Every structure is written in C-alpha cells, then in structure tokens.
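Morning F.,

Quick status update on the modeling queue. The single chain you submitted on Monday has been processed. Sequence for confirmation:
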Amino acid sequence: MLFSSRGAIAPRDRAAAVRGHGGRSVATQLGLAAATGVIALVVAWFALGLTFDVMAMRWASGATGDQMLHYIVSAAAVDHSLLTPNPRLGFPEYQNLFFAPMYDFASALVLAAGSLLIQDPVVLLNAYQLLGFFMTGFAGFLMFRALRLRNITAVVFGTVFALAPFHFERVALGHAFVANYWGVAVLVVLVLIAGGQRTDPIAAWADAAPTRAGRITRRLVPILVMTLALSLTNSYYFVFAAIILGCVIAVRAIVCLICRDGLRGLLWPVVTLGSLVVFVAIQLAVLSLNFGDRYQKYFSERSPIESEQHSGKITTLLLPWPGSGIPGVGDRVRAYAAQTTVSPYAEPTGMSALAIAGLVLLVVWTLARLVVPLGERRPQALADQRLSVLALSFWVGLLFYAVGGLGFLFAALVTSEIRAWVRMSIVLATFGLAVLAILIETAFRRHLSLWIALGLVVIVAFVDQIAGVGEEVDLQPTADAELRSLISSADVALDPECGLAQLPVKSFPESGPIGGLGDYDLALPYVVGGDQSTLRWSYGAVSGTRAGDFWSEAQSPALFADAVDASDACGVYIDRRAYADDSEWLPFVEAAYGEDWTFLGSSTGAQVIVIPR
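Structure tokens below.
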C-alpha cells in the first residue's frame, strides 16, 4: 500500500518525531538554519569570484535581457514603489510594473526593505542575488529537518541544495527571482503534509497539544504561514506546488477508496492545498484589476506550444551541468548541447551529480517496491513512507517536466503563462537530494560512518558544483562609467524632472533586441541614475495600457516630432547601438528640432543626448 491513512503514528515513531522537532530549541534550529545560509553565501561569494568592486557593477550576463529587466525593478524599488505608477519611466505618462508582473511579491518586499539601506539599484539587485544563497540555504536546512534528518545531515544537504548548479546558472542567465528558489523547500514540506500522518512533519507536535483547539491551531497556523509564503514567491513554484499537491492528494484518495479506509485522513492535506489555492486566487484577482489603465493582458501573445518548446528532456535531467569539475563531464555535456535538436529553446536544467544519484536511486527504489511481494517483510528503506511520498511527487513532476508531457495540456486547458516547464528540474533535483539524504542516514547509522559519508558528499559537491563555477559563470560586470557621466551632466544641465524622448521608440516589455541594443537597455540611464537623478524617460510604459500608447505610433520622423512636441520633452536620448550608422536616427532629431540642436556632453559615445539650442 503506497500510503497509510489509518491510525496514528506508532509510539516509537511518535517519540522519534518529537525528538526530531522538539529535541532542540527553536532558537537552536533557526541558528543552524542561519549558519547553513551563511555557509552557502560565503561559498557562493568565492565561487562567483565576487569582490566589492564587482558588487558595485552591473552584471551584463544573460542573453535574453532579463538581467537588465531586474535592474529596472530594483531601481523602481529604490526611488519609488513597485506597486504604484512610476513617473520616472514612460514619460509623459508613467510605468506601472503592477501591470507587467516581472517579480514576485516576496522579492518586492525584500527589495523594498533593502532599499532602506542600499540606495544604488545596481548594488541592491546584486546584493539580492547574493542573499538568495542565504535564503535557500536557510529554507533548505528546515526542509531537511522536516524530513526528520539529523542536524548535521540537514546542514550539509541544505548547503548543497542552496549551491545547486541551477542556482548559479540562473544568476548567469539574469533570472534573479527564479534563482531565489526557497519556495521549493516549502513545496517539499507541504508535500510531506499531504503524504499523511506518517510523513507530516508537524503532526506529532500538533497532536501533543493538550486541547482540541490547541491541536487545530498547531496544525492550521503553520499550514497557513507556509502556503501564504509560497503563494508570494515566484509563480512557477506555487504552480508546481499546486499541481504536485493535487496529484498526491488525488492518489491518496483513490487508495483510501480502494482500501475502504475512509477519507478522514485527507482533511489536513486538503486544507493545505485549499489554502494555497485561495492565497494564489486572491493574488491573481488583485493582479487582474485594470484600474482604468490596462486594456490588454500581458503575456496574451504566448501560445500553448511554447510550453513544449520550453520543456525538459530525460537526457538533460540525467546529465550534470556543463560547469561540473568531474573530469570529462563538462566537455561531453557541452558537446551534447551543441548537437541536439530536441527542445533547443529550453533553459539548462542545472543538475548536480548528487541530485542525479538521488533520482537514480529513487527510480531503483520504485522498481524494488514493485517486485518485492506485499506479504513479505520489507527492508526498512522500502517501507519508508517519506520515500513513498517523494517518489509519487517525483513521477508527477516528471510528467509535467518532460517534452511532450502534461505541460502542454496545462497550457492549453488552464494558462499558457507557465511555459518553462524545464524549471521543474530544481524541484525534481530537490526530491533527488532528499532521497539521497534519507538513504545515507538509513545506511549509515553510526556517527563515524555518517560523518564519513557526509564528508564524501561535501567532496563530490565541491568538485561537481563549485570548482567550475568561475569558468562557467561569467557575470560580465560593467561599470557603465561613460553613461553615468552623461546622466550626471544631464542632471546638472537640464531642469529637474525634465522629460527625455528616447530613440529608438521601443515598447515594454519583451519587444526584442534592436541591432546591438538589448531588450531592456533603454532603461539603462534610469538605472545608472538611481535615486540621484530626477530625469524622466519615455521608455518603459507598459504595452496594453493607455499610458503605453503615447509613443507607440511614433515610428516615423514626423510622428516622432509630433510626440516630442506634445510631450514637452526637453531633449532626445539616442542609443546608437540600435543603428547601423547615425543616418538612421538623424532624421528623427531633425524632424523634431530642424538643425537647431546640439549634443549634451560627448558626441561620440554609444549613448548620447541632444537638446535644442
């Protein structure tokens, strides 16, 4: 029987659970979680080759321009609010990032809090990305403790979880908010709750309350806190959680009906899923409001077939990441990536050797459960309910992760906004790490043998996950010194809150690169100006809103001149990287100012500002 829904935890199991969660004080556990996060942060600092100078520079890595997008979000957090219209972008109107959800609310809160201490948006986002290693390490420790593993095991595997290749690859891709995947740790804990009494990490503590009201409170409050937190993190993670939780509960319900056990044991799992769905529904309801400005939904152009293009493959799920320091692995992985033609748009999976080993053991464990007769006494590992729920969750996740899997059906029937199903790889990798940690503790019960096994885990993790980071992850730090000087000069020469029209005219967001101009690079002057500048910029009003319509038609010199005149812009900013030569942008400036204009500052830079004489 896959799950047991009848009866309470046996006395010996209950005692073990209580010792696992109450043997040390809450302060001690939080202290160890913080220590795990600090270890992960320090290792990441050195692995990425960070210095204080690099932290002060803009990281230009990432082919899609998402890195730049996140700097825009960071700048908005510094000089404005992420939840209200920002008048410094979208001149003469505004930018409202609320209408183009480029961040999760948890990250918005962290950035808002960080802006109280850090006023440079570049430094703020870089600090946020580094803090992500601490946050995932902190959550990872608590997740492995919820699996009823020893403190030392939770510290080691919590650190390995935070330093997953997935993390480093997302930092390199510029996916700052996806990289902060602490929500995956919460997902695993909720899956354990959905697994039933024997896997529920809070069951023993809740049942120990002296009153019925106390037992209900101890059950309900942690569930509400965790589901609320998960609903505020990146949308991929709460969608993955809802899918996996729903399938685990559905399978348990079928088992209960077949075995005539009754459905009472599903009460708290259903409450868990229900609370997550309610919190997500509230968030989506708020995001759907248009406040009289939005008339077209963002992402409405995405098609369901993109969900298949951005799904993952079994092959890449079982291949370590290209930065692995294991001899010969990196070259073979890169050779495969260069030659394969299946799902060429998918992001890398960021798998580690330890996670792969855990997934292989999980598959072997599943097959062993199928061939061992039900009536015979099973080895302890095969009877472990934690492995049962992790196995079920893994197979569900795999069905949505894989190319040609259920991700396309979800996109076609529910929503196509969730398209990068390959990101399920970090969830599957976490299941693999959890299985490996459980089997290690099962196999090595004595302190000395466990310490030796964990020592080997640390060595493998360092070679595979850390040693090649410096070579594989190029952050491309840039000081933007020339542009910073130009913006400083403009702030001195122009009136406060002066509005500048920008060329080329470009919509926001995701309108694609133009020549050598990246997708979001027209916001560079806003970002490098930080809270020291008062200038306003025409780029950034969200497409599909009335504010975004002002410049949308200004694609010819004459229409651009009309828009400049109507907006009372005090100058024109040109990013030359978008043009083959100056003859492509000069007609726009001449239409606006004739020949009566001059350069502000240098006339030879990649970015220039022209103003009327």
